[in-house]
């Protein structure tokens, strides 16, 4: 009987890292309250203070 040890491949690790980075794409931090905001949920307004995203808000 032959046994094989399966270790995560470098390719799958790289894909996981890229997928994690892409999932944060477009997120921004409100300059008014420092809340991180998901663009899919915010419609351009902060979910905490309702501040409209402006040039002083930071890309995350």
UniProtKB/TrEMBL annotation:
Residue spans crossing the bilayer: 12-29
Domain of life of the source: Eukaryota
Keywords: Membrane, Transmembrane, Transmembrane helix
Protein name: RanBP2-type domain-containing protein
